[in-house]
Amino acid sequence: MSERRFVGKVALVTGGSSGIGRATALGFAAEGASVVIASRGVERGEAVRRELEVLGAQAEFVPTDVSQGEQVEALVRRTVERFGRLDCAFNNAAAIDVGVFKPSAEFNEEEFDGHMALNFKSVWLCMKHEIAQFLRQGSGGTIVNTSSVNGLGGVGGNALYAAAKAGVLGLTKSAAQEYAKQGIRVNALVAGGFRTPMLEGVFEQVSPQDPSAAEAGFARLVPLGRIGRPEEAADAVLWLCSEASSYVTGHSLIVDGGVTSPFR
Ligand SMILES: NC(=O)c1ccc[n+]([C@@H]2O[C@H](COP(=O)([O-])OP(=O)(O)OC[C@H]3O[C@@H](n4cnc5c(N)ncnc54)[C@H](OP(=O)(O)O)[C@@H]3O)[C@@H](O)[C@H]2O)c1
C-alpha cells in the first residue's frame, strides 16, 4: 500500500455492498478512512462491513433504500452520530431491472417512476442531505456520483436508465457550481463496463445460453480489449475524493477503457 490519503476522514458509500461501491469502500478503508456503507440487502452489507474491519477500518453498514428520503436522511444522521462528521460521499447505488429491456414507448408510467426514483432521485436525495451536513461542518467536502457511458450516449432498450444517468450529470455539474465557494467539490464517475453482478446480469439477459459470448462481444468494442475491474473504477473515485484533485469540480470522469473515445 503506497498512500494513506484518507486518514481521519469519514467516507460514505451507497451501494457499498457490491461491485464498484464495494471496491471503493475497501479502497477508502485501506487508505485510513472510517467508512459507512449503505444498501438494502443486509447479508451482503454486513459481509462487506467485516471486510472493511479486517483492513483495520472503523466501519458500519446502514441498511438503506436510497430512493426513500427519510432513509437517506437517517443514513447521513447515523454517519455523523457514529463518526462525528462526513468528508467524502460516493453516491453510487443503482439497479438495472433486468428483464425490462424494451423500446422507450413500451415502458409504462410506473416503470418510469420506479427507474427515476432508484437511479436519479436517489442521487439528489443523497446530495441534499450530504451537502446540508457539509454546510453544517463548514469545512467543505467531496461528492462523487456514479453516472454511466449510457448517460452520455443513450442505450437502445434501456432509455430510462440512460435518462437517469444523464440526469445525474446535470445534478453533479449544477451542485458543483452552487457549492464551490463553500469548498464542496462535486464530480461524476462516468463508468464503462466493469465486471460486477450488475453487468454479469446484463450479459445473462442478452445471451442466456452463453453469457460469456455477450461479454466477449462487449470486450471487442473496448479499445483496451477487456471489461474493467471494479478497483479500476474505485481508483478514479478515490482520486476525485482526494486532495490530489483539489482543483477539479463539475467534472465527468470517463473510465471506460476507451469505448466512447471515437465519439467524444
Ligand atoms: N458495472 C458496470 O459495468 C457499470 C457501468 C456503468 C455504470 N455503472 C453504475 O455503477 C454503479 C454501481 O454498479 P455495480 O455495477 O457495482 O452494481 P452492483 O454490483 O449490482 O451493485 C449495486 C449496489 O447498489 C445497491 N443498491 C441497489 N439499489 C439500491 C437501493 N435502492 N438502495 C440502496 N442500495 C441499492 C446494491 O445492493 P442492494 O441490492 O442490496 O440494495 C449494491 O450494493 C451503479 O450506479 C451503476 O449504474 C455500472
Helix-strand blueprint:
Layout: E1 10-14, H1 19-30, E2 34-39, H2 42-54, E3 59-63, H3 69-83, E4 88-91, H4 109-137, E5 141-148, H5 149-153, H6 159-179, E6 184-191, H7 197-206, H8 211-221, H9 230-241, E7 252-255
Parallel strand pairs: 1-2, 1-4, 2-3, 4-5, 5-6, 6-7
Bound molecules: NADP nicotinamide-adenine-dinucleotide phosphate (NAP).
Residues 14-15, 17-21, 38-41, 44, 64-67, 92-95, 118, 146, 148, 191, 193-194, 196-199 line the site of NADP nicotinamide-adenine-dinucleotide phosphate.
User: How much is the average pLDDT?
Assistant: 96
Give the CATH level 1 class of the largest domain: Alpha Beta
| Main sheet record | 7 strands, parallel
Briefly note the structural class of the backbone.
alpha/beta
Spatial gap, N to C terminus: 34 Å
Q: What best-fitting shape do the alpha-carbon axes yield?
A: globular
Characterization of the model:
The protein has two domains: 10-194 and 230-255, 3-Layer(aba) Sandwich (Rossmann fold), CATH 3.40.50; 196-228, no CATH class. The chain has nine helices and seven strands, in the order E-H-E-H-E-H-E-H-E-H-H-E-H-H-H-E. The protein has helices spanning 19-30, 42-54, 69-83, 109-137, 149-153, 159-179, 197-206, 211-221, 230-241; strands at residues 10-14, 34-39, 59-63, 88-91, 141-148, 184-191, 252-255. It has a seven-stranded parallel β-sheet, sandwiched between helices. It is globular. The protein starts with 9 loop residues before the first strand and ends in a 9-residue tail after the last strand. The site of NADP nicotinamide-adenine-dinucleotide phosphate has 30 residues, from helix 1, strand 2, strand 5 and helix 7. NADP nicotinamide-adenine-dinucleotide phosphate is lined by residues 14-15, 17-21, 38-41, 44, 64-67, 92-95, 118, 146, 148, 191, 193-194, 196-199.
